[in-house]
Amino acid sequence: MLNRKEEAELIARARKGEVEAFMNLIKDYQRPIFSLIYRLTGNREDAADLTQETFLKAFSGLKDFREKSGFYTWLHRIAVNQTLNFLKKSSTRREKLEYLDEIKQDDPGVAAVPSPEESSIREEFRSRLQATLEELPMVYKLPFFLVIFQGMSHAEAAKVLGCSEGTVSWKIHEARKMIREKLKHFVPVKKEV
Amino acid sequence: MKCSDFQKLISDGLDGRLNPRSRKKLEEHLRVCPVCFEYQKDLMAVERELRSLPEVELPGPELIEEKLTARLASIKAESRNDKEGKINLSISALKPVWITVSVALIAIIIYLFVPANRTADELMPQFSALLSYEDSYLLMSQLLNDSESLQEKFNSEIIEGIYREIGGATIEDSEAIEIYPQKILDFEFNNNNLTENLKSSEEI
């Protein structure tokens, strides 16, 4: 990973239009950005295209990057906007299901459906969990994914999403409640007092 | 505090956001509330599973890195062409202006620095076309002051013109009239002696 000084130098060079500097700058961010977009779209090709678009946008918008938030956070913000716009354009339920159908059994990542042989309790729990994550409404999914999978703090996720830290905390709390509710057949739930 | 409040604290605790005071309160509640205790246990199981999910594999470099590099290079080339195009366009757009300005400057320089071989008759209309009335007037005054012959010619032209106006008389016809044009000329062309000339005119 780049340290702050190295990152600042690369940003300065990339601002002047140096493609090589920009490619070095985003080298470590390709995986997290692609992962996030893939988890949100469920399609590898779309995720690859959107990742490219995210970096292109970052390159052309680098002159406007004020460095108030970190470069990592700023990239995530672009990625989230790109993905949400994309999902908005192609948001029919049928299209979404088609994406899920495209995912092969051996495809790494989300929403893999286990074969009957693999249906041990843990495997089933995992597959249900992945399906539950897919079904989470976007408003809960985004903050939850940013914190759980991207390793961001609530404050960083709030910057990406342009909301307050408190909102992020509540959305994550709600997301956890929903996940637990969906998995109640696998995780026994007792009545509250 | 209700169980739902403690469940929010459990969620915050999983993300490492609890202060010592809230943590203590939660721990006390969990000792006495089996529902919240189970809730925490379930969330921790989900959390463990989430964190152990396999990482998403990156597609091959040809899908992101290589395509991206190629697109960035083409964007850079396009912007360079755009800049060069803009410069060329601005130069070609200014061409007529440059030509006009250059011609005008050359003309002014020629008229300003090569006046010696020209007569007052030739100079006056051309200067008045190029310069403002005041400029041409001052320039003419200077030329007349510098050259006695020009001044004499200019004076005699004016005097003859006046005689012609009067009715065909010549300069030799009257000695008295000779004073009049001289005074008028002084008044017209010597601004430093304006008061004196005014006085002379009044006398006349």
Structure, described:
By secondary structure, chain A is mostly helical. Helices cover 68% and strands 0% of the residues of chain A. Chain B is mainly α and 204 residues long. Chain B has three domains: 3-51, no CATH class; 76-114; 119-203, no CATH class. In chain B, 78% of the residues lie in helices and 0% in strands. Chain B has nine helices and no strands. Chain B has helices spanning 3-14, 20-32, 34-51, 65-113, 120-130, 133-146, 148-166, 176-189, 194-203. In chain B, helix 5 packs antiparallel against helix 6 (133-146). The longest helix of chain B has 49 residues, at 65-113. Residues 176-180 and 183-204 of chain B have low confidence and may be disordered. The chains are: A mainly alpha (193), B mainly alpha (204).
Quick overview of this protein structure:
The complex is a heterodimer of chains A (193) and B (204). Chain A has 10 helices and no strands.
Any key phrases for this structure?
heterodimer; A: 193 residues; mainly alpha; Arc Repressor Mutant, subunit A; 2 domains; 10 helices; B: 204 residues; 3 domains; 78% helix; 0% strand; elongated
User: How large a portion of the residues of chain A is in β-strands, by DSSP E?
Assistant: under 5%
Low-confidence stretches of chain B: 176-180, 183-204
The major β-sheet of chain A equals: none
Radius of gyration of chain B: 49 Å
Would you tell me the overall average pLDDT of chain B?
74
The tally of beta strands of chain B, per DSSP, is: 0
CATH architecture of the largest domain in chain A: Orthogonal Bundle
Number of helices, counting only DSSP H or I runs of 4 residues or more of chain A: 10
Count of discrete domains of chain B: 3
Mean of residue pLDDT values of chain A: 82
